[in-house]
């Protein structure tokens, strides 16, 4: 057998393994796709996971020889890492099986891994690297420097409006265009603007990739965009994500340009009133909220429920909407720690717009009965 020994910092390995596993399959008929691939090259240890739509790769300093393998029970090993001392050395001892000279099978190419950290030790079989898919190569057409922490916060504010309708794949992704990112599901629309990131051509990034932006720990990274793949890369952390084909919604064409009335609403007060009325909603799809003359009201077979908003100047337009959609839109601005937001309306049948200087939320109205 060929034996290779390598050493890494135990805490750094735990953090790297935790990051990459977020991109792995939870369930898959191919065991290697649920595990982390580990590669030592003499000076670094690189861990990689993929679900074939998204790749996450993290590199940490290492010493020793050169070898590669796919862990088994990666998540159990991650749990075991919490029992290793943070500043201790974690030693890898990999023994590659000696395959038969004639007709070796993939199992014959597997090996044995022994991990040692202080007085803790484990020994497991590992899978040959040949079972792990090669890293997706990306040819970039555009590249941008981004702040992953700022982009992550923007994504968290607008992700509520992402569609789950896979027949329109672009709407299941976040659209990047000029200095904005946007999400839409056919009933709601959400935008966030940041002048520090302005893209030359529109493209789409999966929500799964944007959810992983915290793996960069706030470190600045490079976003490279190709035709079908995009890459976030800080040098030590690399995320590769597939982009959808086709064209999505023209956001500017969908947002009304003219409004009959614009009012300032207190976000906390509005949210509180909606939550109160939500207690009496029996069917969220058929029990709309009516907004009329500064009052929110709900009427169904059980009764009628009313809450007055704190407004200096009440609008004259009576309009209906689904309570949970308006609540999501208001939370977009509450996440920015704002006290108030502008609310614009034109007719009872036109979309309702919430906005500040940089963010926008659009909610489609719900047609009210005349008695509402």
Annotation keywords:
single chain; 372 residues; alpha+beta; 8-stranded antiparallel beta sheet
Strand order of the main beta sheet, please? 6-2-3-4-17-16-15-10
Tally of individual helices: 7
Mean pLDDT: 92
Which structural class fits the helix and strand makeup?
alpha+beta
Write down the Rg: 26 Å
Basic shape: elongated
Q: What low-confidence regions span 5 or more consecutive residues with pLDDT below 50?
A: none
What is the CA-CA span between the terminal residues?
Answer: 80 Å
Strand content: 35-45%
Helix content: 10-25%
Summary?
By secondary structure, the chain is of the alpha+beta class. The chain has seven helices and 25 strands. It has helices at residues 10-20, 74-81, 148-158, 207-211, 251-254, 267-278, 323-334, and strands at residues 2-9, 37-41, 44-50, 54-61, 63-64, 66-70, 89-96, 111-117, 120-126, 142-146, 174-177, 180-184, 188-193, 203-205, 221-225, 229-233, 237-242, 261-266, 289-292, 295-300, 303-308, 319-321, 340-345, 352-355, 359-363.
Describe the protein's topology:
Blueprint: E1 2-9, H1 10-20, E2 37-41, E3 44-50, E4 54-61, E5 63-64, E6 66-70, H2 74-81, E7 89-96, E8 111-117, E9 120-126, E10 142-146, H3 148-158, E11 174-177, E12 180-184, E13 188-193, E14 203-205, H4 207-211, E15 221-225, E16 229-233, E17 237-242, H5 251-254, E18 261-266, H6 267-278, E19 289-292, E20 295-300, E21 303-308, E22 319-321, H7 323-334, E23 340-345, E24 352-355, E25 359-363
Antiparallel strand pairs: 1-5, 1-7, 2-3, 2-6, 3-4, 4-17, 7-8, 8-9, 10-15, 11-12, 11-14, 12-13, 13-25, 15-16, 16-17, 18-23, 19-20, 19-22, 20-21, 23-24, 24-25
Helix pairs in contact: 1-2, 6-7
